[in-house]
Amino acid sequence: PLYEFDDASPIVQLDDANFEQRMSQDASAVWVVEFYADWCGHCKQFAKGYLKAADNLRGIVKFGAVNAEKNPKTASANGVQGYPTVKLFMPEQKRNPYTGKMHKPVLEYNGPRTARGVVDFATAAIPSSYVIPLKDGGLNTFLANGSLPKAVLLGSKPEVTPLLKSMGVALRDRMLIGSAHGPSSAQIATTLAGSDATFPKLVVVPAGGSLDQAGTYMGEMK
């Protein structure tokens, strides 16, 4: 077999029996799915890179693989015509205006069959709409927004990281995620971190809590 699917593998084995429940109904993450055949030479060449991409993005993007020849129903439903075919499924289902059926928006990967190519494609596709950009003067409004707990990532990089975007997707409706970085949010950094200018730093405020109840996450940023 092309892949060893076990508890330690970063790739989930998907098939006709579990594709809908395991992937289609999972709104907690972006999914990347490869449709392959065991005999396919291009699939064998790509397997190492696909496995490395899945391992590099473990906990950020979910990866699955479908043996298309053994699971023709799933392959046909996803328009698979050749191997390997790699598709990216966005987190939330949307209703098809013509059929009325729910489906996930799909992006097909046509880039290089390398780990770096897949990683770049997947991380760029993670929606950032669940992360609230914060600038000086906006912290109190953010903290007063609803009754959910809040988390703010203080960083020096101008872009929202894939990790933070994936947190926003996974924790939507359970936590508000904010991002503050650069000179435009220097006051926020001082308010939340004080004189400790070591970044990145994740500060969490409990539900209904105030700034004096904020705590700093001390674990690894992954």
Automatic annotation (TrEMBL):
A biological-process GO annotation: response to endoplasmic reticulum stress
GO annotation, cellular component aspect: endoplasmic reticulum lumen
Gene3D superfamilies referenced in this protein's UniProt entry, alphabetically: Glutaredoxin
Domain of life: Eukaryota
Thioredoxin domain ranges (all copies): 3-127
GO-annotated molecular function: protein-disulfide reductase activity
PANTHER family listed in its UniProt record: PROTEIN DISULFIDE-ISOMERASE A6 (PTHR45815)
Protein name, entry field: Thioredoxin domain-containing protein
